[in-house]
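F.,

This is the one I mentioned.
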């Protein structure tokens, strides 16, 4: 018996899971698989979609060495990645974008639909804006370049599983630049809130609200905007006050209904 990744309830995970059998034809790149549990008896189940055998093997070894993680399956192509989604959901799915039979973005989009509780992180060599934004729009919550160390990737998997959105610094700059560009475009186009809006949000508050809508935490927004997290929390309180709401969900709903997003 093992713990279900998304609910903490016990469930049966077959010892020879078809995730490993059907989708990992190159099993020689994986070492023998021990079972890892943390002090609470839980483990982070991770699956990898990566065509580079060397990189995939290194990631697999790093995951298997982590005391709180379990490698639930691997895939080397888009087709194998989509096949993974037919099995029980994992906590974290790592996806490369440059797969031999198609784009990893298709796997991300399918995973976001079929495994809604799974956190998806891109691990790739592609750092251009098009790939970054398309991945985020498809459902990725994290984006790391392959020059990140294996130890850092393992740490970021923990962050992702805890609700974070790990992003390589150079990628974070691109995301921030894109949001600012979009905000500037809206201003030029005259996209303003209705005249009966309680109070207009400042440019900085709108920027923070955009990040909130994308699922970023206050600490992550602070890093992206170059502010302290205390300053960001102040912006959040102002946003809540101006929109007359008390939660993130209400803020997003009100902002959209008032044309602020």
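My design for it:
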């Amino acid at each position: 018996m093992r713990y279900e990744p998304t609910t903490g309830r016990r469930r049966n995970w077959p010892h020879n899971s078809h995730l490993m059998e059907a989708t990992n034809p190159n099993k020689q790149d994986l070492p023998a698989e021990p079972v890892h549990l943390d002090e609470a008896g839980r483990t982070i189940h991770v699956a990898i979609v990566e065509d580079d055998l060397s990189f995939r093997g290194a990631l697999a070894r790093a995951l298997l060495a982590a005391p709180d993680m379990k490698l639930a399956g691997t895939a080397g192509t888009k087709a194998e990645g989509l096949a993974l989604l037919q099995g029980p959901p994992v906590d974290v799915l790592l996806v490369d974008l440059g797969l031999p039979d198609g784009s990893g973005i298709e796997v991300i989009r399918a995973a976001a639909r079929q495994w809604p509780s799974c956190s998806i992180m891109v691990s790739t060599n592609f750092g251009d804006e098009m790939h970054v934004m398309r991945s985020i729009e498809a459902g990725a919550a994290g984006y790391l370049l392959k020059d990140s160390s294996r130890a850092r990737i393992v740490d970021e998997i923990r962050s992702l599983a805890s609700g974070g959105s790990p992003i390589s610094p150079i990628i974070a700059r691109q995301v921030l630049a894109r949001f600012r560009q979009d905000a500037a475009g809206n201003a030029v186009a005259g996209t303003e809130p209705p005249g009966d809006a309680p109070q207009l949000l400042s440019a900085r508050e709108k920027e923070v609200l955009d990040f909130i809508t994308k699922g970023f935490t206050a600490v992550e927004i602070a890093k992206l905007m170059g502010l302290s997290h205390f300053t960001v929390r102040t912006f959040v309180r102002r946003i809540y006050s101006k929109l007359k709401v008390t939660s993130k969900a209400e803020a997003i709903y009100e902002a959209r209904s008032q044309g602020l997003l």
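DSSP finds eleven helices and nine strands in the chain.

Talk soon.
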